[in-house]
Amino acid sequence: MSEVILEDVSVSFDGVPALRDVSLSVSDGEFFTLVGPSGCGKTTTLRTVAGFEEPDTGTVEIGGVDVAGVPPEDRNVGIVFQNYALFPHMSVRENVAYGLRYRDPPGDVDDDERVDNLLELVDMAGMGERDPEELSGGQQQRIALARALAPGPEVLLLDEPLSALDARLRERLRVVIRDLQQELGITTIYVTHDQAEALAISDRVAVMHDGRVEQIGRPEAIYREPASRFVAEFVGDNNLLEGAVVSTDPPQVRLAGGGDEQATTIAVDSLPSENERVTLSIRPEDVRLGDASAPITLSATVDTVEFLGDAYRVHCRWDDQSVLVKYTGDAAPEGTVTLGIDPETVTVVGGEGS
Ligand code: ATP
């Protein structure tokens, strides 16, 4: 079993906290992603698992073993960084073979055969004699991946491995990485600042903010049930609208402003605080432009329309608040429009100021 467990891990640099009580548990064979804005502590978390940083407090376990004081080379982890860092003076084959030097115990196939297998695994068979400089960025990252996998690590750590590549290649390679991870069943921790990438390829995602974990969950849960205003804003397009508490028992809220209180009352599971004002999260695809028979209807005006190919991204204005709508009709809407909302798609993401 190669689970990775962090319990109450704090790390600081020169007295400035970079990680604050980070706890997370990655299951055997899971693809787990750390996502968040620059500086939130993703890389520090990964480096702490790898053994390049030691926690001030808290524990890190890999495969059931507390790895405090264990140097990186003895942690049985493979690492790929953002800037592929292949050795320029070595051929592709030598780069991958370099990864074998930590293999313990030695494998049952010879190194040449093992390198060939790895090159095939990352779809680079026959490229072994090339120099790294003769490869594209995407190919170099595949080789970096093969090198990290060479010793047969228990855990694979990937720190923004695709961020130096262009958007189309990134989308292609993320699927390659996911397929490879599934094929090998290797426990993987992946770091990215790209929330779409995180949702696309992960079993579970941890959203980080300011050295803390804000929410951990399956991509669907992170997207549909954001636990905080920060997650609701960071992950995907969203509308954060002002709401007011109508009653606490049963918990009910309404969209603040606009009109008839009855018409916008929404029953919710619970309220985040005693605050009278709350923030309501509604995804653009859950706002139905032109649906006058929806339980909640708002009369809005169209500000700007962007054509996306498969839909329009419509920026509307309702009661001085902007409402983003994903609209799949045939023509760009304009003027005054009705926006239909189903209360079940509305999430309360925090009291005022949260
Ligand atoms: P990015 O997406 O920009 O790589 P990140 O989420 O990976 O960001 P970290 O690199 O983990 O964030 O940094 C977390 C915080 O710790 C930041 O405020 C950063 O400036 C600080 N930090 C990281 N490494 C060091 C270091 N070696 N010395 C001092 N401060 C550091």
Automatic annotation (TrEMBL):
Its main location: membrane. Residues 4-235 form the ABC transporter domain. The keyword ATP-binding applies. It comes from the Archaea. It is found in: Cell membrane. One of its GO terms (cellular component) is ATP-binding cassette (ABC) transporter complex. The keyword Nucleotide-binding applies. Belongs to the ABC transporter superfamily. Sulfate/tungstate importer (TC 3.A.1.6) family. Part of the ABC transporter complex WtpABC involved in molybdate/tungstate import. Responsible for energy coupling to the transport system. The complex is composed of two ATP-binding proteins (WtpC), two transmembrane proteins (WtpB) and a solute-binding protein (WtpA). This is Molybdate/tungstate import ATP-binding protein WtpC. It comes from Halapricum salinum.
